[in-house]
């Protein structure tokens, strides 16, 4: 394998090898993993600190909802711009600037809260900055792994990236709660800003080269849409994912705490459910380190249906042990779905298009956040919570089954061809010149 193969992620020399060395042997990949871990450590504490910063400023649920919306809207609005830039500029430089911007936003918020001058408006303004940063870093991050590891190591690399992040999700909120309780939200927000700054410096050291831009940014965007639409497996997965994520967020994030308060032991039960789910995420990452299915996209789509399990358990009012088991299984299947999906995406989209294809996919799934919350807000007054949970369960199952009916989803295979794409991707490129 040549140095160029390692740089582009399209090497095939070791594809048939029975022993695959760990991507952690590659210094650049280790640096990327460390940057992700550092950033995730601060981000795991931030939601709790943000909530208490809003409360400390005299706000309630409405103010917190406004702050969260203010951080979400710019992400959706600027994702397509971030995708175009990720295919025109150095992705490592974009990640550096994005993390630096996030550090500035969280740092300003920490200072405002510490000085006692926080208000819903100032908190929302800092959240807007963070939302813009996410819009530029998300598409760039999708295309970094393919530059750091060869194609046959992509699934292992994606799993290794998620392993420390999922571990932090288990302990991060607890640590954040302790910091907020002892020192106040400003310290937790300041720590989050510091982790973004450290991650930025680590990412700057990757020094990935920039692609050669041939046309205007608008032309790149049009070409990206043509490429996205020509890949049936990609846009159908995005459409199904938007519906599925909306149903999951509506059932789990909104109705989950409400139902556990009414039917179980309130906050204690919900804390156990979230802990079980996080433990499942960790277990799913371990599964992906060992299991390498050939039909990546079929596995990703099928595994997504596991999110229906805790919703069904809540709808049926099952005893707590069964509810916890369903949460663990949902976490396992979600992480398996995430790793196999990202691997299939990276192996079947050319490196020059990864940023734009990722941004189109992310726009669809992020639109599910307000969609799910809005639908539940409209129907919750007319229907019982358990009935809404049952409907959300059915939507997840239906979206999964319909997506599995798409022929191109079933045709995606693991083994890449010599040019770094699968035979399906080669046919797509031949059929659609703009893709």
Automatic annotation (TrEMBL):
Keywords: Cell membrane, Membrane, Transmembrane, Transmembrane helix. PANTHER family: INTEGRAL MEMBRANE EFFLUX PROTEIN-RELATED (PTHR23513), STAPHYLOFERRIN A TRANSPORTER (PTHR23513:SF11). Residues 11-20 have a biased composition (Low complexity). Residues 1-22 are annotated as: Disordered. InterPro entries: MFS (IPR011701), MFS_trans_sf (IPR036259). One of its GO terms (molecular function) is transmembrane transporter activity. SUPFAM superfamilies: MFS general substrate transporter (SSF103473). This is MFS transporter. The chain crosses the membrane at residues 32-55, 61-82, 94-116, 122-145, 166-187, 193-213, 234-255, 267-289, 296-316, 322-342, 363-382, 388-406. GO terms for cellular component: plasma membrane.
